[in-house]
Amino acid sequence: MIQKYMDLSHIQTESPVSLGAFGGSNGQESLAVNSRYFTRNGRPVFPIMGEFHFSRYPAAYWEESLQKIRAGGIQVVASYVIWIHHEEEQNVFEWSGSKDLNKFVRLCQKTGLRVLLRIGPWSHGECRNGGFPDWLVHAGVPLRESNPQYLAHVKRFYAQIYEQVKGLFFAEGGPIVGVQIENEYGHCGGLQGEPGIAHIKTLKQMAVEIGFVTPFYTSTGWGNGVVVEDETLPVLGGYAEAPWDQHTDERKAAREYLFTPIHRETDIGTDLSDGMSGEYAYDISRYPYLTAELGGGLEPTHHRRPIVSADDTGALVHAFLGSGANLLGYYMYHGGTNPAGKFSTLQESRATGYLNDVPEYSYDFQAPIGEYGQLHESYSRLKAYHLFLQDFGEEMALSSCCLPEDNAADAEDMDSLRYCARYGAKGGFLFLSNYQRRRHMAEKQDVNITVNTANGTYAFEHIALPDGRYVFYPFEMDLDGITLASATAQPLCRIRNSGQTTFVFFADEDTPAIFRFRAETVRPDSVGGGMCFTEKDILGLRVVPEAFAKALELTGVDGISVRLLVIRRADAYRAWKVGERGEQYLILTDAAVRQENDRLVLSSTRQRTDLFSYPAFPEKASAVFQAAGTYGDFAGGVLHFPDAMCSPFVSVQAAEKTADGAMEYTLSVKRSCGAAVDDDFLTIRFAGDRAKLFIDGAVAADWFYTGTGWVVGLKRFSTLEGRSLHLRIEPLKDTDKVFLEKKPAFENGVACMLRDIRITPEYVCRLPIAHTKP
Fold this sequence. Notes:
Layout: E1 2-7, E2 24-25, E3 30-33, E4 38-40, E5 43-45, E6 48-52, H1 62-71, E7 76-80, H2 83-86, H3 101-111, E8 114-118, H4 134-137, H5 148-165, E9 176-180, H6 193-210, E10 216-220, E11 233-238, E12 291-295, E13 304-305, H7 310-322, E14 328-334, E15 336-337, E16 362-363, H8 377-397, E17 399-402, E18 418-424, E19 427-433, E20 444-453, E21 456-465, E22 470-479, E23 482-487, E24 490-497, E25 500-507, E26 513-518, E27 531-535, E28 538-543, E29 552-555, E30 561-568, H9 569-572, E31 575-580, E32 583-589, E33 592-596, E34 599-604, E35 608-614, E36 625-631, E37 634-640, E38 649-657, E39 663-670, E40 677-687, E41 690-695, E42 698-704, E43 710-713, E44 725-730, E45 732-733, E46 739-740, E47 750-751, E48 753-768
Parallel strand pairs: 1-20, 6-7, 6-14, 7-8, 8-9, 9-10, 10-11, 11-12, 12-14, 13-46, 25-30
Antiparallel strand pairs: 2-3, 3-4, 4-5, 15-16, 17-18, 18-19, 19-22, 20-21, 22-23, 23-26, 24-25, 26-28, 27-28, 29-30, 31-32, 32-35, 33-34, 34-48, 35-37, 36-37, 38-39, 39-44, 40-43, 40-48, 41-42, 41-44, 45-47
């Protein structure tokens, strides 16, 4: 048994200090920020931001990807405008096709997403020269300094960007709410101190004079990054690993999985930081805790190839949220592919003076949405947090991190309890974590924590924390007039439909889901279902999470009724919230769900999958969805995707070993046909150093071996019939200095072979559901 006590009764949250230099209005809404959180029309908000590089993804599929991004709970899309992608040849700018910034920003607005543009001029982003064109690098001009020649080039580039987005800024009714100036400046290159501040001021002034007028301007805040007081907001980050580290040994346990007041990030960009410390060159108390580079995954380097699991990402976000972050910003949220260059490949490489080699084309990043638009498992982990923050972001934004003295402070400590609370004017949340990447945490059973505030004392009892679990529980939470004093279930979202509000929670089966309500706020005779109990001033419920639960109804003393729905954790990860205010639905399905105007678009690599909705959809069964009945308060049935007109097929026609020891395979690939299939995914499992897929002799895709399957989406390549497809696998030796978490089997000291190749169709259908506009 573990017993802990947290006394928050003397916590006095300081009133936030307005940062009046930031903010703006478009006549209908106003945005601002203070020393603790963002506001919209004067009310606290908790934004969620995801990085998606438009120039690394085919323009034909931007809109569907943006719909997936929004369905995952993202509200703001961040994107670099990578200089070398647009002016590889001096004075020849490219703003069409996948480089059409204007179209991309307009599609963000159409999809209901805001935009933060990262205009550089230096980006990093694993780009060649950090995004600088070769002609600029070789111009003999000092870069990233305030000299006239360099600034003249930057001004011309900024002016070109502005021409693409003018009329799309927030004050003009557009979606662009922020601009980031430079990147990692003062940490990865650039100047520090007053010269660095002067340079960032110069770049910002130049941008504003050109027309980049937005509510918010940001700059990198970690590792002595240059932040200009009252002119740029510092943004922070943290990753599960550091593939840019130059050694190939196992790394020490990552501190990013600890609860700390503000993460002093020491690992980002250490390949370019010349050993600089992780301290901050500004007063952190003046600014809210904002992140822009929470690792949605990681890009492997040739010498370090970590595998980022869904829980690696989920637990990382959990730690930052518990530690007080009031903006979750992911790098990357959607992967992509480097465009082909005119004169060279466009990736970071040792050949161009950087310390890392990364894939020439693949920028999958193991992100929640992959290189080909496929949803990775981390997408569902993060969505559970995003659904919550969309509905209860104000409560979270108003709360501050409260760390107990005995909270574990050593990432290698597998035995001590990792816990903290966030508490504020609208309640609080108890955070617990028993997760450490690539370590085994000691199992902690029967954890009991008492939280004392000025308003009451709350018991969280009999909590099970097996290795790998991370969870947060609410206290002093308002449920439309009924006060939830505490609960050992995690809040997921709120569903409003036909005048009825349902609060959805999820719970673990090995921890009793106990809800305690303040008795003076709820009618005791109104509670239906569950196992009721009473304590002093408390009306309690014990609820068993079920696959298809029935909602419990509660009525407040004001006569307003709400419903309480408790589902299992596994179902929370396959939950989707669709609809608009007043007619919302909770969907449970393994299919991917996104909204396209007044239709739901569902996709799956399984031709048959279940689908359950709470409450029931108003439409009757269709040819695609066959209703099967009622399960608890869910209406469910089978989603049966139509057959493809023809099935996909892949086979190996020939294999040959080359003089340099590589293996080359001739492939025959036939794609699915018909509207029922949206894409065909080629999954290639191989052992070796790296692999490349060639179509008609040109590299179409590449991948570093990590021990996981390499997935290639084929729809972007149009027809493949009659075209030459070859797969080349280069050898990996057991003496090569490469860090691998999953090593291949070596034969005579070498691994170089194709183990398996298969093709899987992704089925798609559209369900017209009334009142589900995004």
